[in-house]
Amino acid sequence: MSKVVVVTGASQGIGAATVAAYRKLGWNVVANSRTIPASDDPGVLAVPGDIADPAVGARVIEAGLTEFGRIDTVVNNAGVFIAKPFTDYTADDFDAVAGVNLRGFVSVTQPAIAAMLEQGGGHVITITTSLIDHALSSVPASFAALTKGGLNAATRSLAVEYAGQGIRFNAVAPGIVRTPMHPAETHEFLAGLHPISRLAEPDEITDAILFLENATFVTGEILHVDGGQSAGH
User: What is the pTM of this model?
Assistant: First the structure.
C-alpha cells in the first residue's frame, strides 16, 4: 500500500511544491487549503476548508483515511503571517494568526496521531520560521514569534512524548521564500535579510522536508533553511 501524506496550505508556494515532491516519490497526498480545487490526479485528494475551523482538520484526516486507508505523514504548512508593530495588532489579527497557526496545527495533528498510533508510527513536519531565532527590527513580527515559536516548542515536546510509539516530530524553519505571499517589489529588500542575499525557492524548503522524511533517526529537530539568517547578519 502506498504511503500517504497530508499537506495543509497545499494550493500554492511551499505547499504545492510539497504535494508535487511527495507524488514523485509515489506517495498519495491529501491536499488541503481554503479553496483548493479537485485534482485530476487520482493520487491527490483535495479537501477544501479553512484549517482554522476545528472541524476541518478532523475532516481532512477522515477523508484521507477513507480514500487511502492510512496517514503516514502530516506536513503542517498552512500559516498566516502579519507583520506590524506589536501595539498595532488587533483582536482580529490575533484570531487570524492563532486560528491557522495554532488551532489548525492541533485540529489536524490530533486525529492524525490517533491514526498513526493504530498503524504503529508516523511523522509530523511543521513549517515554522527563522524569525523565531533571529528577530529583525525591520520585520516586526511578534505574532509570528508567539505562534510559530510555540510550534517549535510543541515539536520538541511531542517528539519526546511519542518517541517510544514510533511517531517522529520535526520542523523546518525557513527564511523568506519566493511565494505569492511576497509581492515582487519587496523581493530585493527581503533578499537582503539573508546572508546569502537571495530568497529561498519553494523547492529548497521541500528538499528539507524530504530530508526529514528520510532521516528516520531524527526527531525533535528544528531544521533552519534560511540562507544563514539564524546564524547572524
Answer: 0.94
